[in-house]
C-alpha cells in the first residue's frame, strides 16, 4: 500500500509540474539561446530585445519579461529593458495564448556569459502524510 501511495504522490507531482511548466516558448517571448557566449546574447521580447549577457553573477537579475498569460520571470542582464505589456499586447493582437505558469526563480547566476536561473527552479515535493486505513 505504501508503494502505491508513493507512486500516486510522484505521479501527481509530475502532472502538476507538467501543467505548470510553460509549453514551447513562443517566438515572441524567448528565442533559442546561443550555444556559446561568442554569439549574440540578445533575445526578442515584445518590442524590446532582452540582454542575457553577463560577466559576473552581479550582472544578472530576475525580471518580469512577460508571456501570453502575463507575468513570466527570467534571468536577464540587470540593465536590460523588459516589456511584459508589449508581449501581452502582441499575444492579443495575434490571438495567441500560452500555458499559464512560470518557474520559481529566486536568484540568477552567470554561466558561460549567459544569465541563468540558479538552482532547479522546481519546488521539491514533500512526502504526504500517511493515509489512515479506511473504516470497514
UniProtKB/TrEMBL annotation:
Residues 1-23 form the signal peptide. This is Secreted protein. It comes from the Bacteria. Keywords: Signal. It comes from Pseudoxanthomonas helianthi.
